[in-house]
Design brief:
heterodimer, A: about 180 residues, mainly alpha, Rna Polymerase Sigma Factor, Chain: A, about 0% strand, B: about 180 residues
Chain lengths: ~180, ~180
């Protein structure tokens, strides 16, 4: 988002904002201006976020239609472009979440064989994000819990049933922490 | 990749739908008001008729543009007091419902409509509203006031409506004269 905002020149930004204000006021003639000025910006933003291709087009269109649908509620005291980027950002996050869910559902190996380079990059990014999230959740566990889960070497081994119980409790705590931070199991 | 024409068409459709939803939010205020009027006055059919007219006009004006939305807001504000007073008077003085056209009840409604009309006219003059916006705002105010005055009979409705019309017109004329 930062790059998109920095590269935008002031005149174009102003033109987008004014077109949005006019459309919010009900002036339909401003629609052409919005298409000319905002659509390329939204598309390039989507391409930067998810890579070139069908996904970027779809997200770009979805964002554009959403902006059009919500423009009647646009608050003129806000910057139009920032408002549009807010919607775009949300759509991209939704798209990533959808991808993540799809990844959880299907066999990862089968998907990897079918997807193209940009999708692999997405997967790598998601994997990295998941790893970071997992490390954060594990970091919130106690030393004892980490040992019980086998994430740390333990000094003395407890008998079988006690070890299993401890591991179960540590897993429950890890799930609880995950839910607390990310809101899903 | 979608063509520019498709993008324009779908974008415009989304825009109009969005505007319609925004305009339809007027129902959150109007539907309960119509229900209250129908319950208090017992004239559910008349209230429903006036309510449908009021809701349609409000949605259309709000959908049209911001000036229309401002007209609806001002009209509803101007019509709110006669609506409330009309309901109260109908409850307290049931004889007003059968009062002749030239009666104290009509006079009270006329005076109330006049004062609210002056306020509305001044507000519209401050915004330099075009004639159609003035007409819209007065129409909304008359319909809103009529909802409350249904229980006062035709005399009450006429008195308030004429008052609103004359009041707003005089304020407009005066504002143009001084401006």
């Amino acid at each position: 988002m930062g790059l998109g905002l920095r590269r935008m020149d002031a005149a174009r930004r102003k033109a987008i904002h004014e077109a949005m204000v006019r459309l919010a006021d009900g002036d339909r003639t401003a629609f052409e201006v919005l298409m000319d000025e905002l659509w390329p910006v939204i598309l390039s933003f989507a391409e930067r976020a998810v890579g070139r291709g069908g996904d970027a087009d779809d997200i770009g269109q979805e964002v554009f239609y959403r902006i059009c649908a919500r423009i009647a509620d646009f608050d003129r005291s806000r910057d139009g472009l920032s408002w549009a980027f807010g919607i775009a950002h949300y759509e991209i996050l939704t798209h990533r979440r959808r991808l993540q869910r799809r990844q959880e559902t299907f066999d990862e190996g089968a998907i990897a064989a079918q997807v193209d380079g940009s999708a692999q990059q997405d997967e790598q990014l998601l994997t990295r994000e998941l790893e970071t999230a997992f490390a954060q959740a594990v970091g919130a566990l106690t030393e004892e819990d980490r040992r019980a889960l086998g994430l740390r070497e333990s000094q003395a081994d407890a008998p079988g049933p006690a070890r299993r119980k401890r591991k179960q409790r540590a897993l429950d705590r890890l799930r609880g922490i995950w839910r607390q931070i990310y809101g899903e199991p | 990749m979608v063509s520019r024409e498709q993008l324009r068409r779908r974008g415009l459709r989304a825009y109009e739908t969005g505007r319609l939803w925004m305009a339809a939010r007027a129902a959150w205020v109007l539907v309960p008001a119509v229900l209250v009027c129908a319950l208090v006055t017992g004239a559910s059919e008349t209230c429903a008729c006036v309510g449908v007219l009021l809701l349609s006009a409000s949605v259309f004006l709000r959908w049209r543009d911001r000036r229309g939305a401002d007209s609806v807001r001002d009209g509803l504000l101007a019509g709110a007091l006669p609506l409330f007073v009309g309901l109260v008077v109908a409850r307290l003085v049931p004889a007003c419902a059968d009062a002749p056209l030239l009666s104290a009840c009509t006079l009270v409604c006329l005076a109330l409509g006049l004062s609210c009309g002056v306020w509305l006219g001044r507000r519209l003059a401050e915004r330099a509203a075009p004639p159609w916006a003035w007409l819209g705002a007065v129409g909304i105010a008359v319909l809103a006031a009529s909802l409350g005055c249904v229980g006062l009979g035709i005399a009450g409705v006429c008195g308030t409506s004429i008052g609103l019309l004359l009041g707003s017109l005089s304020a407009q004329v005066r504002a143009r004269g001084t401006g």
